Structures are given as structure tokens and as C-alpha cells.
Backbone:
């Protein structure tokens, strides 16, 4: 994440943020058809599920129909276009993108710099939405002046998932997960000594090794790329310390078990089977662990990301909705109304919140799982009150995370070619956990060279 984005949002009250982020409406010809007969505005909206996914496609089409019924002055043209890093630039240059599109957290800052997204500040303010967002999340979509160029609709921040039953068996307090990596190391060693299970495990394959190493590096105060994503930076002291700690836990403490090749599915299965005490993940891992892999809900616990040497923050991810930079004022208003209706309504409308919660219960899905809200603390509290009668997860097991996560700094994924960077880091983590004599410094130096070659393309 760009440091200026952090500075402009951190510590500001919402009223000041509103005053600082006002901007004049922009103008221009959008890719939609603009105002038609009777003042109707037509916009194209992306992310329509394909015909190979009939259930979700039908649900999406129903929301489109419901929106148009509620907004007869707006016509939506849904298309199947989705975010694809390999085709986006060509589509943007050729004017082939829809007026509204979902993109990951890694993209807004680059798009703002390249002027590929519309300034939505005034529209969000006029629609009564600007003060509804979590300012820590909103900064992902802001420029130096705190103007807003995208609408956050989903977010997560990584924490530490742990097995409360193994904590108890090891003589640890299940309500007090480790707050630092030194504490994590000590707890992992104790779990192994007392229970015979791996105290800690870390994902290493299918790009998850680089992903988790990035999260760990952030927690040690380091970075993966510089601000503009032109250079790799993970051959510095924080990254080396993070990787050395993994090496020492594996080979000195012997608290990470024998297996080293895990992706999210693999690590979820062994964790649910009670063979791993802790691993890094987001709160929504609850569904995978409990409902898909059979972990008793009482055994699930999650705390904030442990820090090392200061309060540095945690890796976040999620998605935002962008609007074409060529959209007219009317098209931007129509786009924001659709985004609110399709993605945010349950957070700001009680009827929508209750309907969604009831549907989740009926489908036997987790309802009320805590996480990183895209809306403000006040609005999130209101939303939680609306759905309280339908919550079916053990909220007390999330308490260590929720007490800290709302205020913990969040740091975006690497801004350029994140997945390629993660792929280059997978073998680094695998080697350290698979070879006791691995040279941490040499591995990182070589990987930096590999990543710089990719960033330079």
C-alpha cells in the first residue's frame, strides 16, 4: 500500500475526512449510453456469472431486475467481463471495459495513477455513503488528497487461527493467543512438547507460500515491494528475521511437524484433524474448517496477526468496485446506486440485512462471522444488531481477533504482479522448511533478482 494513503486516512475523524475529500463532479462521455428517452441512463455492469454457473447467474439477473424495478430511470446492461490482470490494460486502452467492474485491493492505486478510474468522491457524498465506510479500508481507494476512486465491497485482514482444544491440552490460555512472534514461537514449542502435534504450520504451495511470507514480513515491519512496485525490497532485515524464525522453529524447536508442503486446502484438513495448533488465515476460514472439514466449532479460535518489534500491521485483501473514467455524472450516479444495491445494501438497510441473514441460516451457512468490515465501526455495530437473532457462530471464539482487528493497521498486497511475486517466494519458504542448512540471506537475494526481472518487464 502507498504510504500516502495510510497517512491521509489514519487518525482522521470521519467529519474531517468528509471535509478533506470533497471534489467537484467530473464530466465526460462514458462507455454507457448516458441519458436516453425520458432521462433514462444505461450503464454496463460486469461480473455477471457465466451460463456454466446457472444458479448464480439467475441470482445475479434477479438482482438486476429488482434494481431496475426500484430505479426505472436506470437500465443495466450486464456482461460477463471479470477482472483479469493479463487482459485489463488492453481492454482499458481499447474502451472494452464495462462501466462497473470488481477488482482486487492490489489494483486501485495503480489505476488511480494511470487515470483509469473515475473520481467518485462527490457522488458517494451525495448518496450518503462516504461516511459509512471503514476509513482503514477506504484508504485503499484514495489518492494523495483523499479523493475516492473506488468503492470497497469486501475485505479481510489476516490473523492467527488456533485450535482452542490444543491450547488447553498444552496448558495455554485459549482466550489469549500470542501477540508477538516470539510468543508464537514459545506457544508452538509448548504445544508440540505437551501434545505431540505441530505447534505451528505455514502454507507454502500454489502461491500461498509467498502470500503468507508477505504477511509475516509485514508483521516484522518489512515490505515486499517499494511504493510504486518497481523494485523488490524483501532482502532486508525484517524479511530475513521472519524467514530465520521459521527456520529455527522448524529445525531448532522442531515445533512445525514433518510436512512442509501445504496450500489452504491441505492445511485446513490437518488443522481440523487436530494435528496443527496455529496457522495464519482470515476469519472466514471458519466455514472451511468447521463446515467442510469437521472441526468442532468450540475448537476454533482466532486472534490478531502477531507483531514483532512494534505495531506494524497485517496484510489485507478484498475487492472494490471501479467505475469507468469516461462515465458522465449521470452514469457515475447510476453506477454507485447499483454498487450500493448489489453489494452494500445489507449493511445500511435493515430489511436487506435480515433477509440476507435468514437466507444464510436457511442455507446452513455461517451467519455473523466477524471480519474486517468495509463499513464504519458505528454502521457495523448497527448491522450486527440487525442480524443478532440469526447469528450461528460462536462469537466469543472470535473475540481476541475482533478486539484488535478493527484498529490494527492494514497493508495491501504487493502493488505490482502480486501473484508472480508470491510464486517466486514459494520455493524460498519451501527450501527453508525442507533443508536445515538453507542459507536465508542467499535465498532472499536470489528471489529478489527473480522478482525484479518480472517487475521490470
Residues:
Amino acid at each position: 500500500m502507498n504510504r500516502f494513503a495510510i497517512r491521509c486516512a489514519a487518525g482522521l475523524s470521519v467529519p474531517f475526512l468528509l471535509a478533506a475529500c470533497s471534489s467537484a463532479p467530473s464530466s465526460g462521455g462514458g462507455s454507457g449510453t448516458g441519458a436516453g428517452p425520458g432521462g433514462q441512463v444505461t450503464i454496463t455492469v460486469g461480473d455477471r456469472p457465466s451460463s456454466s454457473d446457472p444458479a448464480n447467474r439467475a441470482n445475479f439477473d434477479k438482482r438486476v431486475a429488482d434494481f431496475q424495478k426500484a430505479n426505472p430511470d436506470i437500465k443495466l446492461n450486464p456482461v460477463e467481463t471479470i477482472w483479469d490482470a493479463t487482459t485489463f490494460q488492453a481492454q482499458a486502452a481499447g474502451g472494452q471495459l464495462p462501466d462497473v467492474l470488481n477488482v482486487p485491493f492490489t489494483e486501485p492505486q495503480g489505476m488511480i495513477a494511470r487515470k483509469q478510474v473515475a473520481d467518485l468522491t462527490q457522488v458517494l457524498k451525495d448518496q450518503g455513503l462516504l461516511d459509512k465506510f471503514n476509513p482503514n479500508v477506504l484508504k485503499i481507494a484514495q489518492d494523495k488528497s483523499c479523493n475516492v476512486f473506488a468503492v470497497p465491497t469486501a475485505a479481510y485482514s489476516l490473523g492467527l487461527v488456533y485450535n482452542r482444544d490444543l491450547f488447553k491440552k498444552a496448558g495455554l490460555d485459549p482466550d489469549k493467543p500470542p501477540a508477538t512472534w516470539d510468543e508464537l514461537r514459545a506457544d508452538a514449542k509448548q504445544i508440540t512438547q505437551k501434545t505431540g502435534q505441530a505447534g505451528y504450520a505455514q502454507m507454502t504451495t500454489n502461491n500461498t507460500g509467498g502470500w503468507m511470507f508477505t504477511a509475516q514480513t509485514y508483521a516484522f515491519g518489512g515490505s515486499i515491494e517499494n511504493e510504486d512496485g518497481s523494485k523488490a525490497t524483501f532482502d532486508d532485515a525484517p524479511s530475513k528475521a521472519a524467514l530465520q524464525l521459521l527456520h529455527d522453529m522448524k529445525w531448532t524447536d522442531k515445533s512445525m511437524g514433518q510436512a512442509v508442503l501445504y496450500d489452504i486446502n491441505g492445511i485446513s484438513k490437518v488443522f481440523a484433524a487436530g494435528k496443527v495448533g496455529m496457522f495464519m488465515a482470515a476469519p472466514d476460514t471458519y466455514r472451511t474448517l468447521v463446515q467442510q472439514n469437521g472441526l468442532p466449532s468450540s475448537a476454533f479460535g482466532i486472534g490478531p496477526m502477531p507483531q514483532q518489534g512494534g505495531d506494524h500491521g497485517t496484510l489485507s485483501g478484498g475487492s472494490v468496485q471501479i467505475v469507468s473514467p469516461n462515465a458522465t455524472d449521470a452514469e457515475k450516479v447510476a453506477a454507485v446506486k447499483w454498487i450500493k444495491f448489489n453489494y452494500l445494501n445489507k449493511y445500511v438497510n435493515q430489511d436487506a440485512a435480515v433477509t440476507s441473514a435468514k437466507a444464510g441460516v436457511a442455507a446452513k451457512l455461517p451467519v455473523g462471522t466477524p471480519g474486517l468490515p468495509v463499513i464504519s465501526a458505528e454502521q457495523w455495530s448497527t448491522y450486527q444488531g440487525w442480524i443478532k437473532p440469526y447469528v450461528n457462530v460462536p462469537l466469543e471464539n472470535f473475540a481476541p481477533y475482533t478486539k484488535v482487528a478493527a484498529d490494527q493497521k492494514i497493508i495491501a498486497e504487493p502493488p505490482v504482479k502480486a501473484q508472480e511475486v508470491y510464486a517466486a517466494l514459494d520455493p524460498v519458504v519451501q527450501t527453508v522448511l525442507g533443508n536445515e542448512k538453507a542459507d536465508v540471506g542467499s535465498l532472499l537475494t536470489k528471489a529478489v533478482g527473480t522478482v525484479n526481472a518480472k517487475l521490470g518487464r
